[in-house]
Specification:
CATH topology of one domain: Glycoprotein, Type 4 Pilin
Number of strands: 5
Structural class: alpha+beta
Strand order of the largest sheet: 3-4-5
Distance between the termini: 94 Å
CATH class of one domain: Alpha Beta
CATH superfamily of one domain: Glycoprotein, Type 4 Pilin
Number of helices: 3
Shape: elongated
Oligomer: single chain
Length: about 180
């Protein structure tokens, strides 16, 4: 530390070594407590723009693939529903010795048949959950034929066009073609 004297000029005062260290520590602590403008953290405009460009590219690649998926999902759901109805028909046959006739239809799985050959041991509550025959994913009825042209019975969803046949997304979903 420097002191001034009028007649002799500057006079230096002896400062103990530990006080110098203390002053340095105090100065360092003050610097740490006071945030400087250059040490503030955040994203620059360039960084944000790069992220936006990457997100745009990803959306451009992924969205077209997802947009075609709803139809695939409906077709998969129809296949699962057909398999579920097949299981209910097999349980019906186990209880009654035969599948419902075409005339009795799938309604025989939720109500005891009143036409054709009566069910011998029709299960109370039916063979399908929720006590009703489901609609296919396009809100159409499943077509049931017994005896079938391709097996003991045929179970068909006509798909989104609600007509027999069709190609691509309009193709029928048939129980004999499912795995």
């Amino acid at each position: 530390m420097m002191l001034f004297s009028m007649d002799t000029g500057p006079v230096y005062e002896a400062v103990p070594h530990f006080q110098i260290k203390e002053r340095r520590k105090m100065t360092e602590l003050q610097k740490k407590k006071e945030p400087s403008v250059t040490s503030e953290q955040g994203f620059t405009l360039i960084e944000l723009m790069v992220v936006m460009v990457i997100l745009g590219i990803l959306a451009g690649l992924i969205v077209p693939r997802i947009m075609d998926r709803p139809e695939e999902a409906r077709r998969a759901k129809a296949g699962i529903q057909i398999q579920s109805i097949e299981q209910a028909l097999k349980l019906y046959k186990l209880d009654n010795g035969q599948y419902p006739t075409t005339e009795q239809g799938l309604l025989a799985l939720v109500e005891a048949p009143t036409v054709g050959v009566p069910a011998r041991k029709w299960r109370a509550g039916g063979y399908l959950e929720k006590g009703k025959v489901p609609k296919d994913p396009w809100d159409g009825d499943f077509v049931y034929l017994s005896p079938g042209l391709h097996g003991d019975f045929d179970l068909i969803s006509y798909g989104p066009d609600h007509q027999s046949g069709g190609e691509g997304n309009d193709a029928d979903i048939n129980n004999w073609e499912l795995q």
